[in-house]
Design goal:
The protein is of the alpha+beta class and 107 residues long. It has 3 helices and 5 strands. The longest helix is centred in the last third of the chain and has 11 residues, at 77-87.
């Protein structure tokens, strides 16, 4: 049984399934560990999917790289920041974030 869970906006599920999104970046320090993780749809229209967390790091948003953003499915860190502001309107470049890397296997 998978005990770790994160909510994921429904619009990002296709990118996980198509392996264009290989991670997620969340504001603040999250208690996520390597191992299986259940991604649950925020609107429940996509259901949920299991991913395997390979790596978790904590850093200030100012140190997030374009490569980190690309693994999260964005073109660069500025685009990532704009989307993060949709979920965390008060996020700043000095906030601590959790970078979660995962792999999705479709069977």
């Amino acid at each position: 049984m998978i005990e770790q869970k994160l909510l994921l906006a429904d619009k990002f599920f296709p990118d996980v399934i198509e392996k264009r999104k290989l991670g997620t970046i969340r504001k603040s320090k999250r208690d996520i560990n390597p191992g299986w993780l259940l991604l649950e749809a925020t609107d429940k229209t996509c259901g949920s999917i299991n991913v395997y967390v390979t790596h978790v790091t904590y850093t200030s948003m100012e140190y997030v790289t374009d490569e980190d953003a690309k693994l999260d499915g964005f073109n660069n860190v500025d685009e990532l920041m704009n989307v993060l502001k949709e979920f965390y309107p008060d996020i700043s470049w000095y906030d601590i974030v959790t970078i979660v890397r995962f792999v999705y296997k479709d069977n």
